[in-house]
Amino acid sequence: MSTMLEVSGLSHRYGTGDQAHTAVNELSFTVEAGQLACIVGPSGCGKSTLLRAIAGLLPPTSGTVSLHGDRVDGVPDDLAVVFQDYSRSLFPWLTVAKNVEFPLRWGKLSKAERRAQAASALDAVGLSGVGGKFPWQLSGGMQQRVSIARALASRPALLIMDEPFASVDAQTRFELEDLLRRVQAQQGTTVLLVTHDIDESVYLGDRVLVLSKSPARIVADLPVGLPASRDQITTRESAEFVALRGEVARLLHGSPAQAAAADAAEWELASAAEKTEKAVTEDMQSS
Ligand SMILES: Nc1ncnc2c1ncn2[C@@H]1O[C@H](COP(=O)(O)OP(=O)(O)O)[C@@H](O)[C@H]1O
Ligand SMILES: [Mg+2]
């Protein structure tokens, strides 16, 4: 297998001086070609920052990103991104087919080739009949399928997905998860997907990278030994799935005893702060 993505010593800090906030701290990992790698981490830990830096949308404070050996500096041509918010990522004034064709305009394809490639991408996500409709005529789940089709139409070397199924209902989410695994296997796409959902990371991934709380560090890099062909019911019931999701949960939240200790410490801090505040208020009132 060849290395598709190499992230090396990547850090990102927002702001400067007192306002500085380190969102990503010294991350290094690689993703092999054809792999579906999931990154799971708590909200606010720096996942979107990491993806934006990998996609060349944000220059990192330090460290490097390489895609098939080429240093990323600006958005690479053969990289596609799918965001959580499908309603803002599709153009409402273009039909579904035109939306999917849109990014192909900058390539070397003829008009007929662009049309054919867009049609085949829509077909891959089970939307061959809706090319003539407008995005707002479709359900949220279908709109997100259009976003996936648009990303796949350019046959990217790397597909980056930032919580792509976080805004759809649970049933649609399951359908989209299965769709992604199916299309990814068919097309051999390399995928880096970020989620805050532990079960989703294990269900989807060939591998799960677990991030710490902010600033994001890698706390574990776990291979997922589940069979390639997965099923929402039997896979989620299997002993391997249950064991792995437990392991990821412990890495994210600590053992129940650790979590309780952290809660108690937080409560003590809060009540100490409250006492101080009360003392200060009384002091002010008596003076
Ligand atoms: N443009 C920005 N300017 C300043 N701070 C930011 C900016 N974007 C994100 N942050 C902060 O960086 C941290 C990580 O954010 P983000 O990467 O969006 O996390 P996640 O995607 O894991 O929820 C958060 O504390 C967030 O408030
Ligand atoms: Mg995010």
UniProtKB/TrEMBL annotation:
* Keywords annotated in UniProt: ATP-binding, Nucleotide-binding, Transport
The record's annotation in SUPFAM superfamilies points to:
P-loop containing nucleoside triphosphate hydrolases
Instruction: Supply one GO molecular-function term.
Output: ATP binding
Domain of life (superkingdom): Bacteria
Which Gene3D superfamilies does the record cross-reference, listed alphabetically?
Answer: P-loop containing nucleotide triphosphate hydrolases
Domain (ABC transporter) ranges? 5-238
Signal peptide stretch: none
Query: Which PANTHER family does this entry report, sorted A to Z?
Result: ALIPHATIC SULFONATES IMPORT ATP-BINDING PROTEIN SSUB (PTHR42788:SF13), TAURINE IMPORT ATP-BINDING PROTEIN-RELATED (PTHR42788)
Q: What is the protein named? A: NitT/TauT family transport system ATP-binding protein
